UniProtKB/TrEMBL annotation:
Residues 33-76, 89-156, 368-401 are annotated as: Disordered. InterPro entries: LRR_dom_sf. Residues 62-71, 376-390 have a biased composition (Polar residues). Signal peptide: none annotated. Gene3D superfamilies: Ribonuclease Inhibitor (3.80.10.10). This is Predicted protein. Residues 50-61, 89-113 have a biased composition (Low complexity).
Amino acid sequence: MTSTATIKAFPLPPAFTAADLYSIDEHADDGAGAACSKEQVPRVNRTTRAASQSSAYPAYPGQQSAPSRFQNGPPEAFHAALKRPQKLAGTSSANNNNNQHNNNNNNRTNVNNGGRGGGGAAAARTGNSSPTNSVFRPPPPLAQEGITGPRKRAASVGNRMHLSTLETSSWVRESVYLSSPIRSAFKHGPDRRPDELFGLLPGEVLDLVLRSLKGLHLDKNSDSCATCMMRDLCSAALCSRRWYKHARVVLYEDIQLVGSDSAAHKKRFKQNQGNRMALLRRTLRSNPDIAALVRSLKVPHPEPPPNWSASKGMLWLEQYEDRVAALVMACPKLERLSGPTPSYDHSFKKIFHALSTRTALKDMTWILEPPAPNAPQGQRMDNSPSKQRGQSGGPAMLEPAQGDAFLSSHRNWTSLTKLSILCQPGATLAPHRLLSKTLTYLPSLQHLHLCNLPPNAFNDNNLLSLPPLKSLILSRIVGITSSGLTSFATRANTSRLERLELRHTPLTSLPALARIFSHLPSLRVFALAQSFPPVMPETDSFALWMMPYLASASIVKLHWDITSHPATTNSADDILARSIEAGGFPALTILRTPNDPEARFQALCRPVHHICLPTDRFYRHNTLIGGSIPASGSFSAPSSPVSPIHKSATTMSLPATIYAPSSSGTDLHKARLAAQARLEAAHDVPRFTFSLTDDDSQVAQTIGVAGFLGTLGSKITYHLLPDEGATDEQGGLVDVLDLVADGGEALAGGREGCTGRWNQKEGEVADKKEKEKWWHTERGRWRRLEA
């Protein structure tokens, strides 16, 4: 294949030589002077002159209409003339000084002779002469632009910029200066407001500066917090009206109220919590323009009043939720509400009604509870005529009115892109048609996260009716089967799926997993965590000779955690390791396999010096302190009560104990210690051996070097760190409960917060107020979590 390139040639500016750059007398042309002496020539407009002239050098108005003497001559003479420009302004300071000195002498002579000529004296005093007796001499072109004299750096006044300090090439066209906004700022002289030049910056630059400031405060490794960020943005908004316009957007589009209220607010408003929310609600209600800017809102976690006990009831929590609902109603374009997520027990609450009216909402998390005791109860699944096999003992079905109320909450959410649903023990969304009908009201849905839904709420029918998604997370969903997952992967609307996580979902068939990999072309992240390995049917055992059996050309990150074999490698682990080694995952760069007792996966990754963190050996877990580290994977989590399955199975044939809550996965802290032990053991086994011989070609010494664990040249990273917001104990994957957690806001457990004094000066201060200038109530450093 031959590549073709096109090169465009542009004319260069006229080249000058030392012989061509000589001074030309501006008044040498008598014809031009005579023409100007008859009638005063008005000043030519700069824009018109720059557009009409074809040359890069300006000419006098009297010479523009004169016929060119090179019109009929050879081209060489015309180009030679272009190399001889008229006198450039500022090229000769000596001539300018001499001309100015001669003019002063002439004026002095006219003044002395003014007693004998009244007309001449009057003309000399006023500085004007008769049109018939004076000759109009326009100033040099660049002098009209504000540059006089030679090009040299002028004295700087403060921090202001002057156009005379800008050095430009002589061949640059005048239109470049005419289009410059900085040039227009100097046309009235250097005396102006200090911030006038700053106001010439585009609004995009100011937005970039303010968002960078916000990012510095909220960075993961920053010592600051959201309170310090809002304080600096408020200070920026008070600088000028231009700052206020852009700082107001950055401040109010993402509001973060973190931690408890200050003692001054509690004393002033005489309530324990909700003071900042009340002030914010008053601001938003009085300024509709500001209220329309709010896109994301973070409310603080509720705090019980002093001397509160469970016997006094939860009235304070209901009042807190009502304040949050009133604040939500003041934000007409709210897209996301972060902070504590109240539980939904199918009874009316103001907070859920307020969220249902936000048409721009893009993120919603449901924590479903069993129906309230005062609400009408539905029929039990045991008495329902639609009872299915293996679903006995399930939660109660909802009444039609309760299902309609849940369904009506989604009617206005046409912009919703993320939906997370968690069913607490005893809660449900039965019948299963309720969830499928709910998703039809969400045309913009892209990310779905379902956790602990019972079989009567989500099964294979719901899985096959899902809309086109970009990410799907199924955690402890036991109502689906391997055949349902296979049929889901082969549907046309799954071609955009980029992330699929199956956590303790009964994936029993290894061929089903192979079909999932082969039918999802956009899959980039895949996670499988369960207590038993998927098995290979006996009729398909011959296919294992064809490697790679599991293959995906798009997967970049793979999480694989089978907890049933803590000491040995199971058959599914062996097939996956052989598939990776055979090149079945060419795009794979991150591999997380916490349960890897024989280092099958660790040996496929690039060699590293260490895996565990510096604090892992001193981390106290239960009653064990990092000391002796076994080389095997005995640190893995205990196996699930489900016994290992040695042949093909379906959901209906699994034991009843599979519906019991299972462990989330292998502890990553223990997995790092075990991986580090295997790595250190490999250092004692050399990979290369050198034999030293003497003069008689006898081996005198043998040296073994380079003991490591891994594959040289591999691009796969052995990753044993949790995702952002997850914990080591939960296996490193983010669940719904992690999304509604405190996110670093709570100060319990010895966690240090921010008091704002990270910006305080050290040592002596000149003002007493400097000590408390930056101080605020200690608050945690909250960060938003993403699944």
